[in-house]
Amino acid sequence: MPKALTILGMIVALLVVLLFGADLAIGVPFQKAKPLMDCVFITCAGMLGYMSWSSFREQK
């Protein structure tokens, strides 16, 4: 079960990066709400992805 949760964390991080990266680059789907908000969410998703990857490697 913990492996599945770490993989799920990586998937969620990737989806958040794609969603807010697209908003930052082309304004879809939020019509360029605030660039600072996009950057903060991308940074947080990167941290989530790193922590999930690190936990996944420790479980082997």
Description:
The chain has about 60 residues and is mainly alpha-helical. The chain has one domain (about 1-60). Helix content is about 80%, strand content about 0%. The chain contains two helices and no strands. It has helices at about 1-25, 35-60. Helix 1 runs antiparallel to helix 2 (about 35-60). The radius of gyration is 13 Å and the shape is elongated. About 10% of the residues are buried. The mean pLDDT is about 90.
Largest sheet: none
Radius of gyration: 13 Å
Order of helices and strands: HH
User: What structural class do you assign from the helix and strand content?
Assistant: mainly alpha
| Contiguous helical run count | 2
Number of strands: 0
Shape: elongated
Percentage of β-strand residues: under 5%
Please provide a brief summary of the model.
82% of the residues lie in helices and 0% in strands.
Any key phrases for this structure?
60 residues, mainly alpha
Secondary-structure topology with pairs:
Layout: H1 2-26, H2 35-58
